[in-house]
Amino acid sequence: MKTAPIATSSGDLDARMLAFWRRVNRCRECATIAPWRKFPLGRRGTARYGLMILGEAPGRVSLEHGRPFSNPRNLVIRRAFARAVAPREIEPEQIFYFSDTVKCWPSSATGANRSPNAGENSTCVARHLRRELELIRPRLIIAFGARAAAAALGAPVKLAAIHAQPVTGSAGLRVIPLMHPSTINIAGMRRVGINSLDDYEAQLTQLMRAEIKPALAAFDAGLTAPASRRFD
Q1: Mean per-residue pLDDT, 43-47
Q2: Is residue 226 situated within a structural domain?
Q3: Which one of 60, 74, 79, 164 is most buried, counting C-beta atoms within 10 A?
Q4: In CATH, what number is assigned to the domain containing residue 150?
Q5: Would the pLDDT of 11 be above 80?
Q6: Is residue 168 part of a domain?
Q7: Residue 191 CB neighbours (<10 A)
Q8: Ramachandran region of residue 50, left (φ > 0), alpha (ψ -120 to 50) or beta?
Q9: In a domain, 4, yes or no
Q10: For residue range 103-126, what is the model confidence (pLDDT) as tens digits?
Q11: Closest CA to 10 of 151, 136, 124, 131
C-alpha cells in the first residue's frame, strides 16, 4: 500500500477525513446496493488516536440510530468500552474511529440486513477502504467478522484460528480479528471458547483495556494523540 502524507495536525486529519467521507457519501458505484444508505457525516468518531473499529457493513438499526455499532448485539462492544475506561464516562467515539469494509447498507429484498456480495466488497475496499487506511494509518484495527479482518489484513482469513490474536497484515497494519457478536454467529463464537454474550463482553473489555492505555493517557492529558503517533 502506498502511504499518503501524514497530516500535520489533528485538525488537518479531521479535515482530510471529512473530505474523504464527502466523496464516499456521493459514491453510487454498486447498483446492487442502491439506495446507497450510509451514515451521516461526522458520525465516525475520531481518527486522531490511531485506534480503529472495523465492521463488515452498516446495519439497518444502526443507520436508524445514526450511530455505527449501535444495534442491540453491537451494544456489547459499547458496554465493553465503558467498562474498559471506567470510571471515566466517555463515549467510544471520543477514542475510536469507526468504519466498515462496505460503506453502504446491503439490504435484502425484504428490507433485512444481508452480507455484502463479493463484488460490493471488492469494489468498496479498492475505491474507499484502502484510501481510508492510508489517511488514518491506524496503529491498531479491531476487526469484527471475517470480511472486515480479511479487508484489513489484505488476505483471506480463517477467523476461528486467529480470533483475538494480533496479526500484522500485508500493509504493516496491526489487526486484532474478532468474531462478530451477532445472533447468526453463536456457533462461531462457541468455536473460540465464547459461551455467552457476557463472556464475549468480559473478554473484549480486557482486550480494550490493554490496547487503549496510550490513547487514554493522551486523552486525559488533553493531547491529540499518543506520543508515538503525534503529527509533528
Answers
A1: 92
A2: no
A3: 74
A4: 3.40.470.10
A5: no
A6: yes
A7: 14
A8: left
A9: no
A10: 999 999 888 899 999 999 999 999
A11: 136
